[in-house]
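I am writing to request your help with a piece of structural work I have in hand. What I wish to show you is a protein chain and, alongside it, a tokenised description of its three-dimensional fold. Could you please explain, in whatever detail you think fit, how the structure tokens follow from the sequence? You will find the record immediately after this paragraph.
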Amino acid sequence: MDLYLVFKIGILIFGLISWFLYKSDRSINKNVLNDHIRQRERIRDLTDEELELLQPFLTSKLAVYPYNFQSSLIDNKVSYLLGTCTRKSLYSNTEEIAYYYDVDNIEIFFPYNMDMYIDGSNIFEVVFTKHYGIVIKVNDYDIKTAFENYDPNEEYLFRDVKQTKSKEKIFDNEFFEEHNTTHRQDGINSSDVESLSIYNDSKNLDNNQAYLEASKNYYKLLYQREETQFEAAIRRKHSLGWLTSLCLILATVLLIRSWLGENDQISILILICLGAAAFFAWYKPKDYLNPQQVSVVKAKIYDKDPNTCSIEVGNLMVLEYPKYWLNFIPETSDLATEMVISNDNKKLLRYGQTLSINNEVEQFGPPKLVSRNKILFVIGGILSAILYYYTDPVNNGYFAYQYYSQQSENLQIKDFTTLKNSDIKPGDMVNITINNTSCDVNDLNEDYQCHNFFINNEPMALKENNVMAIEGSLKHIFDTKFVDDVVDTEMLRFQNVQSLYVDMLNRSSNDGRYVKNSFSKIESIGQMVIDIDKVCKILPVKECDNVKYNLTHLFDTSRSKANITWDDLLTESTKNPDFSEIVETRRMHSLKQALEPFKSELQSELVNVISKYQSDNGVKITLTNQSYVDMAPLVMSKSMRFDENGYINYYFAILNNNIPANINIVGSVSDILYHKVENSDRHNLETQSISGLKVNANHHYNLDENQQLSSNLLIIINVIMFVMMTLIATINAVKLVQKTRINRNRSKEIIKYYQDRLI
């Protein structure tokens, strides 16, 4: 099996190497061909007869298979090609269908089996397409001689490779007979039917079927010419704007990345992307400026698709036409009609002598091209919305205006009194570094990102009926070891006695129905009772009664006739706070379960108390436009570490006005709130003091007194880009509406023009 696997892998590797070498050779051939075309020496022009004989190979992909089909020559100039001709394929010089001939790495195609006339050294006369040369003469044999000696019954001209790789003979004898008789017609009449046949390996079609196939695929190239100025007017003079859009998208991504990542070094890349976008918006591709070749043909319509506004003509060619031609183009046609086709063989420029793009543009002007406007409108709108959401360009513009107009000041605030009585105005830059700056307890989330702060000056007063009087009890209740069960000597002795007693009962009953109950020992029950009693008097939450019930229920026994009351338990606990008790484990678990909702309610009540304290005694700082301060380094410190049951240490640090670390808030002031304070020294006149600030604390606004705004280039770039994207979206939206209206009116006029002509 191993050898077989190695053999298969070897074959696979050999096949891949052969394929890559084959493709590499074809790529080299293309480059060599381009160099040869530029340097070749023209010896003469292609004759009309030679061009006529080449038509089957310029109108059918099957006629030139396996070569890359080209529908036109680059020009009608004939040149020499000298050397040895080699037939190459994936596995060199085999009889595979996928092959090509080359002379000194220039691929050439032999029409009418002219490859049978090649020798060891050859002189070729060749005309060129973009991918290969077509032989007109090889040594002493020209294309006319080859055609006259060509027998379509022995070789195939049009190949159907998808169905078989053997030689399936399909040939349009109408073309063959046309050059061997003096009688020629543009259409196909009844006398032509006898000369039309399509050959197959196993059978011949009857005359009717042959006529239908030939009639359907009838296609004749009359000549090629340069497009008129009116036909050229419908082509795009600019690209669709994809490169411009790509550069704008890249610039936006880089800006957002730099803005959020505090990396100003990307600014130069953003400017490069914007410059590239401006270049591609201005640049006109040469393909749209240079005149193109169009083909004048005679063909029949054998299918029409109103949904895509397209028709199918000979040789499976699909041509698009303007939507307003829909009612004037027939579903099918019995006679060949003269048509003009664009260089890419995709657009119908003229049908018959009535429908003509040239005449339309000459009389009504060219249509307005809207694809570019649609793309830039969508891209501009999306990017402006993204910039507005992520980078706040409106406030950035206001900040830059305030800075350059010298209407803003940099204020360093380091104490509560200065903040409260400071002459701050919107647009000023503030740098607030004050002790005891705490996050709004209703705002701090699980990610420790805070948007609302309070700066308080004094701690909450200690009173008998407020939470400051029960700080120790609350911290004890929220301690993870509040219900602390232990296994000590007394507990081990109890378990041994219990085991002996249960064993004795089972021996006496001889049925083993007695089992041990699970017991646990809880320490310091008295202190638990005292703390819960204190807390419930000041914060009487609903769960107090349930917790008290579970505590007293610890002491119930099956033999007791009257349960112990809370007052009895509290009296005993006051006398001996450290007493312990061995209780049933199930009752201890019930107590722990009752404590969870109790703690949750206590925390909610405590948050309400702290929130009122913060708002009544402090100045509120609100950070706007997605700016925030990361509180994690502060709240996760050892002195205020959060336990798993609540933020109790942090809460009491706020109430005690004892936040150990400073919180630095830097940003631009967008709004100021005041409250009225009576001043008795000024005859009871009311003066204003600050009760709150709204600050955009973007780190890019953090400028030193001597620092210039130009050093933070991102702010300026952000404003310019937002204005640019908004203008791109707005201008292209207006143009799109205008052009759509103009095109609609133009279509109506053209339809009326054709209706009048047809009538």
Summary: The first helix runs from residue 2 to 39. DSSP finds 24 helices and 28 strands in the chain.
